[in-house]
Amino acid sequence: MVKHLCAIPQPHRDLWNPDKCPVRLLPWLAWALGANYWNDAWSESRKRRYVKQALGSSRNLGVKKGVMQIVQALGGAVTVVEWFEKTPPGPPNTFEAYLDVGTVSPAAAAAAYSEMVNEIQRVKPVRAHFTPYQALQGEATRKLAGVGRVFVSARMKFTVQVSDA
């Protein structure tokens, strides 16, 4: 009898693991871990990354670390500058969030930026006000080419003489 019971698959352990949970159940796992936002259009890897960080970000609601975690879970990077870190200090209980959304397409960047701003609004301290900025990074290479030509230059002086002969 015990052998038969042990042969029954027990997927409940996998249901609580973001790496092994079936994709169709990830929204429920995210909800159970405290995530308040979900987007079905996300890729599977992004969904799993968001679920992994859901518990940590819900534990850090109202602190700078929570803001940074939620942006990372959404696939971006953020630099947070609080009011007392500025020179001269800004208004109390304010901060600036410089968001690097990490996408190439302008439409995708706008959607990611909007998602991140909404999530920062949710996890930031209630008394704090923030100003979001979209950080842009670019990389360019310039290829230089040169052409050389060997030539010799000589200056010649001509004198014209007119004869009346």
The unreliable regions are: none
Which sequence of strands runs across the widest sheet?
1-2-3
Based on helices, strands and strand pairing, what is the structural class? alpha+beta
Output the helix-strand order: HHHHHEEHE
Principal-axis shape equals: elongated
Fraction of helical residues: 25-40%
Largest sheet: 3 strands, mixed
Number of strands: 3
Account of the protein in words:
With 165 residues, the protein is α+β, with helices and mostly antiparallel strands. It is 37% helix and 12% strand. The chain has 6 helices and 3 strands, in the order αααααββαβ. It has helices at residues 2-7, 12-15, 26-32, 44-59, 64-73, 106-123, and strands at residues 77-82, 94-100, 129-134. The chain has a 3-stranded mixed β-sheet, covered by helices on one side. Strand 2, helix 6 (106-123) and strand 3 form a beta-alpha-beta unit. Helix 3 (26-32) packs parallel to helix 4, helix 4 packs antiparallel against helix 5 and helix 5 packs antiparallel against helix 6 (106-123). The longest helix has 18 residues, at 106-123. It is elongated, with a radius of gyration of 31 Å. 18% of the residues are buried. The mean pLDDT is 81.
